[in-house]
């Protein structure tokens, strides 16, 4: 059979492999071309496939998150959502010999109709294929693919980009209508293929009990209403807040326009060079004509990071006991500076950090982020006195660090493309598309990583490398399988098996939380530990080359429930019992314990996430270990935090609902981010965090559905009478706190900065400073809820007043400094209402300008109470007057 198609224009056929991207040149194509395509092979030509990709219009719409009778009652507690993919073709397409691949964030339960099938390939990669009832795509007509998916989709960001169309033997083609664009005013991604949400009740509620309000302009206005616009609150303010600051009464502001004349004394200039560079970027340079600034030893203490700062009209003195202290003293000068006037207040500051561990985690595995982003982040971490960078460089979707002797990790594992055999790359995920040169792919060379280490060390920041294992390890597994196939083909079976991470005879059926069934290292194979040993040694060698010893390594400690059960190697391993493993249930603990000991023997402390670490037998662990506590406070997260701190481990608080910066700032479906623990983690919520008393946060927070919850911190026993949870022991505390940026929805450096800033400033505030309004921890145990009353009205008022100062400091001083550093922070959305025909607007950070306009009109500077006719649009302007925030409509 032959198919004859007439199209308006045709793209030149592409001859490159599926893992390289070529530009399509259509300029020389005739206005009308007749294309004949036979179905003897694919039934379709490359030219037609190109045309389909160029002109096919796709729309993704969430119809409703309200479950109905057609939801799968055996899955997801009977929850499902109804969504639709609309296909509108510019040409007639009768052939069935094509498929569309795309990322679907939630697995599909069922499809309405018989024209198409949708199958899940792996992870979130799905395939749409014409089915028996396919009637063709008719020019100008819309064909709907309606389906139900698991649980819910509450964000427009869930609609992943870069659908692509394939046919056997042809080059895949990205469907242009599904590509992202960038808003020229905000700099943020726009998804033109996703239909905007319009109904809060059917589209933005998780269930019937959900009480969270969509963050409309009126909701934000009420949220911001109590915060005064008072730039004077920022005059003597330092972020993070110091232990003690005394303003010298009746002393005029000190001008730093002439700069600083540094007297280093016994301090090596290189250790404070980064802090001086930031001052210069603000406008305060080193100069012989500048105010004398002397670095002196602090002999009264040896506490890490402690400093004393004294600013007078003619002299500045910084006293410190270590390099970090001197850098932090200079950072506090920068914090005091008014970037417009270049003046500081005459003050004395005595300061030291609350926590030794003040960290930021960045995931570069799911979607890669540039070395420059990391360097820029390190600059800002140093500016706000953070000292740990947890760099997450390997997960299911990518391996991002060059390892000598294992080139496949980056040759295969650092990129995703349309290679279904995964010989040259990993499968596409997270809307990465079919080509390996997409910006979400990439890795750090050895030289890159050594540069990052040196850059961090110069800023008194420790880099903690992380390659997740045994779960979340698909990139490593598939890279080593590709290595195995290559070496077997060369006849070298022994070398092929040396670093193999999977048992080819394993028939275990399991699914990870990201829907992979092949992402867990086989912990029963010695080659797995040979691989781990090799990777750690190579990373340690890079640290040594940078002059920064590797003494903390994060193994992830994630595992996948149900893995290994049908692995013949694991069955034999357990039966043999020579490693003390007597059941399949003990394999996860065995892996973490053995890897932690392997690290300890190299002088390296092991770190892991709290869920995996909880499976270990503490008596089998090294005496030193770190656990990142990522349990949700609203779900009893304090219990595991207390249990692991009581073991003597270094427990680092990493609570999702307040410290995951990949979650939305506000409850709005247009905001970037995942939302499984929180849909509104703005700066004020982070500021409110009481890390010293986790359960006490139940008095001030609500859960993901804006419902109150209770945190019982009394001794709890199970049915057998064994203690299941208990309060912290006397004198036990947490090692610190860490913010997290996971990158599933974060596809660019600008979006990464948008998600991190200004929240990183609030992270620094809570990591460095213990506020007086924090509820004291009760070691005897207590039950906390919104009626328990431990967080008194006086404490709440003190918290509010503290926030007023912090908010005005960010708005009046700190955001402009981020602008000068070219940080693409989130410009907030405004609050606004119309009362009696007059517009009233506000913003979470007072001091930022607001603009408004009538629909289609010119933007005008907002003045309180200006007369308007509804509806109007409002937006906030960045501190430097250049970038714009997202526009909201006021009705």
UniProtKB/TrEMBL annotation:
State the family named in the UniProt similarity comment for this chain. Belongs to the glycosyl hydrolase 20 family.
In terms of superkingdom, the source organism counts as Bacteria
Among PANTHER family, the record links this protein to: BETA-HEXOSAMINIDASE (PTHR22600), BETA-N-ACETYLHEXOSAMINIDASE (PTHR22600:SF57)
The signal sequence is 1-18
Reactions accelerated catalytically:
Hydrolysis of terminal non-reducing N-acetyl-D-hexosamine residues in N-acetyl-beta-D-hexosaminides
Organism the protein comes from: Shewanella pneumatophori
What residues form the catalytic site here?
559
Q: What name does UniProt use for this protein?
A: beta-N-acetylhexosaminidase
| GO BP field | carbohydrate metabolic process; glycosaminoglycan metabolic process
Tell me which UniProt keywords the record has, alphabetically: Glycosidase, Hydrolase, Signal
CDD domains (UniProt xref):
E_set_Chitobiase_C (cd02847), GH20_Sm-chitobiase-like (cd06569)
Q: Which residues form the Chitobiase/beta-hexosaminidases N-terminal domain?
A: 54-219
Tell me if Transit peptide is a UniProt keyword of this record. Answer: no
Q: In the Enzyme Commission scheme, what number(s) does this protein have? A: 3.2.1.52
Per the record, GO CC terms? membrane
Molecular function, one GO term: polysaccharide binding
